[in-house]
Amino acid sequence: MSNIRHFIFDFLVEKGLSEDTASYINMLILLCAVVFFAFIIDYVTKRLLWRFSAGVAKRTKTNFDNILLDNKLPRNIAHIIPLIILIEFVPQVFSDFSYAETIIQKTLMVIGIILTLSIIRSILKSIKDYLKTKSQYRDKPIDSYIQVFMIFAWLIGAFSAIAIITGISFVKFATTLGAASAIIILIFKDTILGFVASIQVSINDMVRIGDWITFEKYGADGDVIEINLATVKVQNWDMTITTIPTYALISDSFKNWRGMKDSGGRRIKRSVIIKVSTIKFLDAEDIEKLKKIQLVSDYIESKSKEVIDYNIAHGADKSVLINGINLTNFGVFRKYLQTYIEKHSAINENMTLMVRQLEPTSQGIPMEIYCFSKDQRWENYEFIIGDIFDHVLAAVKYFELEIYELSLGK
């Protein structure tokens, strides 16, 4: 390179050009030649490396190498050789211009740092895309870890670039920077909090991608579609997107419905309020009438015999109905609902199932149905509830009971 540089310079001087002019023209000719040569090497290297990588990808069973191609790793690696050529020869081109030589040399070294970071980014992005194709990693916050690693990589790259430009050693620069750590912590507070939160969320398995969560503070109620370093994105049921700070998952309270999904049932917990004034003891005529209801006919038959035997054994005076023990329309209705729910095809019989009487209120006595539907899908779940309580509301009158309704005066 040195011989060529002097040859061109001497040739130009011989042609009558001044030494200053010859130096500038010599520098431009050599610069164009080196850049052109580097461009050709870059093109050839890129084509060869791409073809080689594509051939290897076709022959292998794994799709990881295909992902590396999609993330342009071969192209980024191909730039290494041309950059080495430029670093080696371009400073020599500017050897007669010492002020420019230093600037060019530092610029190329900074470009080398950027190229290294690009290669690292391509590899990390490929790892992320590959892991997301594996079912066991789809619900893990891979994005958070990649982002944290890249933040540290970019910080180291930025510090290295500044150290090169200023001429200060990296160690000395990093030591000096330690004095400003308080300011850095303040600037990257959310990033640090998000990083810590991401680790805790992952370790404790608090949230996965695809989980249904309810976070009232942020108005979120839907499926988690993304977990990254700073935010968690939730697609609500109305198709809007709510963004929640990642650290809020460990600092605030939210509800994760994953347990419900994993259980095989979705809870139904709803009640109707019965008027107290319509609750009564059943006499013989009432009992005979209710025996016609098939779901409770066997229960009434056995229970009536039990009541009669008890009252006879204890000498109860049944001329007054309250004496002894008696069946009530409210109790029979509760048994009817219990049997109805047990036989309902949409209810999970392997989970808690009961009809219970709650504490009386000023409106009446709530009769609550507590069970779990087999189908967890929202629209089907609501249909099941509607189907059950349509029947409950229509069945009340057969037991001579009434549902409480608030009547407003005119």
From TrEMBL:
Keywords: Membrane, Transmembrane, Transmembrane helix. It comes from the Bacteria. InterPro entries: LSM_dom_sf, MscS_beta-dom_sf, MscS_channel_2nd, YbdG. The chain crosses the membrane at residues 24-44, 107-124, 145-171, 177-199. Residues 190-258 form the Mechanosensitive ion channel MscS domain. Its main location: membrane. It is found in: Membrane. The keyword Membrane applies. It holds the Pfam family MS_channel_2nd. This is Mechanosensitive ion channel. It comes from Winogradskyella bathintestinalis.
